[in-house]
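Section 5.1 Outputs to date
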Amino acid sequence: DLDFNGRPDLARYIVERFAVLLDDHGIRALMDFYKCYRACVRGKVESLHAHAETVAEAEKQSSLQLARRYFQLALQYAVAGSRPCVFVFMGKVASGKSALAAALGQETGWPVHSSDRLRKTLAGTPLNHRGSEAERAELYAPAMTKKTYELLFEQSLATLREGHSVVIDATFSKREHRDALKKLMAAEGCDVRWIEAYASEAVVRERLVQRDGDCEVVSDARLEDWKRLSADYEAPDELSPEEKRCILADGKIDQVFGTLLKELVVR
């Protein structure tokens, strides 16, 4: 109930007090399971109420909204437990990372911080504007990249300190940026879960070609940039299997996202 009403800090306080006063520190691990279970039960009850024949339409809609919120909360417990966590979606150009990050944000309600959007916001450039070669050179210069990642980390940290998990969408093609985030979050006491998306060459090429006709695309990367950007990508070999999940994102986003959720479930 406290989590549902926006006070995860009080929820964690109560659980910690139970663990200390009862001298039962294993209660922390069990609590996430039961909170997930109860959220599912609440969501089911509200769903059934929303389909009752004798319920007024306004009340049905209210119950549906409550059901969605409870199921959303249950998913949060399933993939992150009760403590704020950082989910980083990284990978080469057109790997599917942004689509997966957006899907996790939508299904959990967690904010998604995108490096592509932040970079253009910092530069005062419209999100869907792809400038000239000279403009792009300035936009993606090392100094601007440094500012982008600094703001990305700053915004993510602010979200975590509010008690919420956060989704980060960025290439993280350089180890220095990955190390910087790990160091920052270790000092904050937050876990970082890395998801590296990848796709076959044929799918990547197809996606990059399709970007030419899509005015809603934020990323400036196109087919002519693919080889150069791929060569610049430093593989995250320093991340252990416990830290990182790799996901093949060739298929439809719903199917890939379903597979990913099974990988993310806290066991």
